[in-house]
Fold this sequence. Notes:
Elements: E1 32-39, E2 42-50, H1 72-75, H2 78-81, E3 87-97, E4 100-107, E5 127-137, E6 144-158, E7 180-197, E8 205-215, E9 222-233, E10 243-253, H3 259-265, E11 270-282, E12 285-295, E13 305-314
Antiparallel strand pairs: 1-2, 2-3, 3-4, 4-5, 5-6, 6-7, 7-8, 8-9, 9-10, 10-11, 11-12, 12-13
Amino acid sequence: MSLNTGAFPPAVFPAATPVSPNDPGTLYMTNFVFTQPLSERMVLFAGKKDVLGAADQDEFAGGDGTNQFVNQAFIANPAFLLGLPYTSFTAGAVMPRDWGMMSVFVYDPQDRTRDFMQLGDLFSQGVIAGGEVKVKTNFFGLKGDQHVGGMWKHVELTDLRFNEPPPGVYPEPTVPGFPTLNDSYTIYYGFDQYLVEYGGNPQRGFGLFGRASLSDGNPTPVRHFLSAGVGGYSPFGQERGDQFGIGWYYVGASSEFGPLPQALFGPRNGTGVEAYYNFQVTPWLNVSPDVQYIHPEAGALADDAFVYGVRVNAKL
């Protein structure tokens, strides 16, 4: 199972979301957002929203794990995503520009998956704030973008000198009975760049992607992070709409783990590789074999492992 690999980022992120994997089938409202354009250059939003696709998105590595990569390390930067609730209340602004886009937001750190509009304790446990600037590029006459952003969390997280949240658990919990720290940050960068466009269509082709980040190192267990790869529409099945991806990631673990978490988890730097091929069998059905190699960050819990899977999506 994806939560038992010993890696900080879950190997199969959709298996960790929504955050009640053993629930018998309760219906939750995870997205309910109002938007109000003030002009072509300013759009406000507020409501309840899940974190998937909210920040650090690349053309070839992002989304929610249902169409591209399934490892959380390729969906968004694990340095900030693992500490975010699956869905909560948010407000912010998006500012489109000819050269790209700017965005800012605040986020309630409480997980609101089971809530609908319970606003009485809004921001009672802290606040999460962030922003991102995305710039369009046209290297080699082909579409791409570069983005840089940051996220600050004023919320209690476990002090790594005393203990560590269980690796692979999402959202990252606070260990009861141990000291906490209130502030953490992550600064991140990402890019995507098309290498090939089919028939001059800027929406069909394949290219490169990459991510990098630097975090506080305590309470954030990921001090630095790198990923890179290639993905997009396959040259072998472009008529059908087949897609593929091959990616590598590196997790630089914090150097501030104390004796207890070192003994329990054996934290170390980790790495992983994932490859998938998405066969568009019919317009409404796609099948994606997927394979991963993982060198986990919690060396005391797990050895190196291969993870195999097949994903099936049917659109009715």
